[in-house]
Each structure stands twice: as structure tokens, then as C-alpha cells.
Amino acid sequence: MTLAYFDCFSGISGDMILGAMVDLGLDLSDLTGALKSLDLEEFHLEVREVASYGLRATKVVITVPESILVRTFNNIRDLIENSPLPNTVKAKSLEIFMRLARAESVVHGKPIDQVHFHEVGAVDSILDIVGAAYGFEALGFTEVLSSPLPLGHGMMKTQHGSIPVPVPAVLELLEGTPTYSSGIPTETVTPTGAAVIKSLATSFGNAPPMVLEKIGYGAGTKDLGVPNLLRIVTGEPGYLLAESEELACQISTNIDDMNPEFYDYVIERLLGAGAHDVWLTPIQMKKTRPGTIITVLCSPGNAGAFKKILLEETSTFGLRTVSVMKKAIDREVITVDTAWGPVSVKVGRDGNRVTSVSPEFSDCAQIAGEHGVPIKEVFQEAQSLARQKFDPGPDVD
User: Fold this and answer.
1) Residue ranges of domains in the chain
2) CATH level 2 (architecture), domain 330-390
3) What's the confidence (pLDDT) of residue 330?
4) Reduced to 3 states, what is the DSSP secondary structure of residue 371?
5) 10 Å Cβ neighbour count for 350?
6) What is the pLDDT of residue 397?
7) Does 395 have pLDDT greater than 50?
8) 369 pLDDT exceeds 60?
């Protein structure tokens, strides 16, 4: 299980991401082969070891011929879908490009299929995005977390004329993301960098507890007056000191305006999609309105699917995501014969020690109803019989 923390202390861009991934150990020949599988113009990928204000880093330089070709989102989608890349890499690449397309659509007031990608549609940007998606899979990242993003300021020249920094597409991409002013008078977060980190990261904040394993530094191009580097730190979650613990993702949202009849359907959809657990918590919200927190516990790699369900099926306008540690004890189901009939019992063990004995409620309820006995008597007898199987007590002469 590999956590990756993107420490974006001076910003983030596509080439910085690739550089840090190569510095972590992403095989250059494999990366080049994956990118060459795209039906693109000829390009040359070069890796250099550089220094930025005394700090060593890896710089990825992609050289492409000048081209007047301008691609639309549909062009890029076809390019990726028709490639022999692994399906996981295709899906992640398309997710990143879709974020970009939506942002550009809002900024320019055009439908997604009419948006022309200029910088984003350039060959080097396509390679940055597909390369980042490939690196995510090849390096085996289980979950990506990120620091808040430092934004620059000022003006920059584009094909549309001079526009403010951060550029509008970056701000659109970073809606809901923790940011702060870096004080640097130039662009520090590019549209490509913003789209990639928003697609890869499950949350933004301080570095999580980790057992550090590797550190990769990717260099940017500009002289910012400070080290222009992206640092990716990888390792095992710091909590993983005990056996049977695993990293999980907890997604939650507060709701106060949804038909309560919908909750049952939403919970069934979430559980049917493979959620570890789903629960509701009553709360009091603004204007003393009663509300509900719906919380989903899931594997980090599947968090996106559950976020999609919550956004589609509930009235929420946003979600919270945190990484948590989950410890699950070993369990088995046995059957005991009570005076009224068989009952299934779930037995939990922590190592060799039995820690939980829980009769199946539906079995107890059925027997209680059929025989006219209190359900608690059925439950208690089933629990007692199950405990005797594992702790029969001292022998009696």
C-alpha cells in the first residue's frame, strides 16, 4: 500500500509531476514506450539532473516540432481511447482532460465539444497528462494526498491577450481546493498541473503520518527566486504498525433538504457498489433545521465511484474526504442449535482470542415469532451456546 504526498511548496505543473515521478523510479523507457503508443507527432523526451537553488532534482524536457494543429476534447478523447494504453491509464487520462474541458468551457462560454485546447491541446501537454496517469499506475500509488496549492499573481500573455494570474481556467479547476498566495509574481500552478492534482488527490492538507520510503523532486522551468520544485513523498501510512490494519477513505456530507425516503435507496446503491459501510447521523444545521450526515467508508482506490453516487443521488453541494485507518478482525459464521431451532452466529477473533459473538438478528426474530418466545431469550441462548464452543469451561468430574 503506497501513499503519495504531493508537496507543492512552489507550485505544480505537468513537467514537474513527470520529473518527480521519474526521480521516484518511474522507468524512463517504459514511460517513453507508453507515450510513443499515442498517435501523435514525433517528440523527444529527455531527462536531466538539475539543481534549483542548491537542491538536486530531475527535469523532464519534452521537445516537439512546432505545429498549428489545434485539438478539441473529442480529438483528444479519440486519441487516447484508440491507443493501446492500459484501460486504467486511459480512464485516468480522460478524467483529467474532462476536468480541463469543463473549466475551459465555463471560462470561454462554449459547449465542451466546441472548446479548442491551445496550450492544453499541445503535444507536450498531452504527454504530461498521459504520462502522469501512467506514472500513477506504474508507481503503484494507492492514494494521493496534496498540500494546499500556492498561487502566483500578476499578468501573463496568452493567445487571448494578457490575462490575470492565476489564469481563469486554474481558478475554475481549483474550486473547493485549499490555496494560498505565494507572493510570486508569475504563474505557479498551471492548468495541466491543477487538473492532474485535482484528479489524483483525494484530499488537500498537511502531510499525513507516513513511514517514509522514497522522495522524488521534479524541477520546473522558471526561476522563481526560490527552489522551483515539486516534491513527492511516498511510503506506508504511519498508522500501519499493527497487523490487519488498512487505509480507508471516509466520505461524508451534510444534508438538510432531501426527501427522507431517498436515504434507503442511496444506502443500497452505495453498499451495492462495494462500500465497506454506510451510516446516517442526525445533526442540527443552520437556522436550527434538522439535518443528516451520510458517511461512506470505502477503499481509497474506489472513492471516486462513491463520490459520484453521492453527487448524483443526493441533494448535496459538496463532500468531505479524509483518510482513516481501518482495523477488521477475523470473522467466521457458525450455526448453533437452540431449543427452538438453528441460529447463525458471527464470531470475531483478534488473533487467537474471541472478541465478539453476535447471533444473526433475522434468525432470532424468525424463531421468536414462530415459537412465541421473547427475542432476547433466543439471542442470549444462541450467544451462550456459541461462546461454549470456544470456551467450554473447566472439566467436571
Assistant:
1) 2-237, 245-327, 330-390
2) Roll (3.10)
3) 85
4) helix
5) 13
6) 44
7) no
8) yes
DSSP code of 319?
-
The DSSP-derived string for 146-166 is: EPPEEE--EEEEETTEEEEES
Contact 363, 338 (CB under 8 A): no
For residues 61 and 124, the model is more confident at 61
Domain 245-327 in CATH: superfamily?
A: Transcriptional regulatory protein pf0864 domain like (3.30.70.1380)
Do residues 47 and 60 touch, judged by C-beta distance below 8 A? Answer: yes
Q: How far is CA 167 from the centre of its chain?
A: 25
**Rg of the chain in Å (alpha carbons):** 27
Give, to the nearest 10 degrees, the angle between helix 303-313 and helix 262-272. 160
Note the pTM of the prediction, 2 decimals.
0.65
Reported residue count of the chain is 397
Instruction: Give me the helix-helix angle, 87-108 and 73-81, nearest 10°.
Output: 180
Q: Parallel, antiparallel, or unpaired: how do β-strands 245-255 and 290-298 relate? A: antiparallel
In tens, the pLDDT along 60-74 reads 999 887 765 678 888
Measure the CA–CA gap between 132 and 370, rounded to whole angstroms. Answer: 61
